[in-house]
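Notebook, bench 3.
Goal today: get a predicted structure for SGNH hydrolase-type esterase domain-containing protein from Cytospora leucostoma so we can plan the truncation constructs. The sequence was checked against the plasmid map this morning, with no discrepancies at the termini. Length recorded as 170 residues. Pasting the sequence as submitted so the record is complete.
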Amino acid sequence: MLSMTMPGTEIETVVDGLPGDLVSRGKFVERTKKHFEEGNEPFDWTIVLGATNDIAYAVDNEEIFESFKKVWGIPLSHGSKVLAITVPRATMDGTNLELVERRNAVNKDILGYSNDGHVFDLYTALPCDGAHAKYWDDAIHFTPEGYNFIGDKIGIALMGLIVAERSRQH
């Protein structure tokens, strides 16, 4: 999508998510650092989405948010801009109020954080109703169509940020 709206712009996408990984206690930080090691091509933008598993495993919200700040700090310290993504809805939201409250608290922290970063509210952008049930594989995981929908939403948000940045430079 970005390459169609910005001809002549080279776009490389690196996806490095792992099923079941945690932002707080998994390999998230380690994997992020790997992409910014000396000799690697620098990234203009780093998009960070995570914490669904942290919330499901009842990791303390403050620990989740502090872990996000560490992750965001890695690309920021290497000159990359960060687009932080809120934790998306899940089809089980109607049956698990505790998880909903925890997710909402983490999202509030993400939305309120601005240390040279940008935020996209995927939670709000991704409807969770009967018409959109096709996006979920189970209660929390997405179908390929769901991931494409998410990618389109994030791509539009990123495109807006890039266009705004370019217009400020001219």
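The chain has a mean pLDDT of 88. The domain at 21-169 is CATH 3.40.50.1110 (Rossmann fold).
Flagging this for group meeting.
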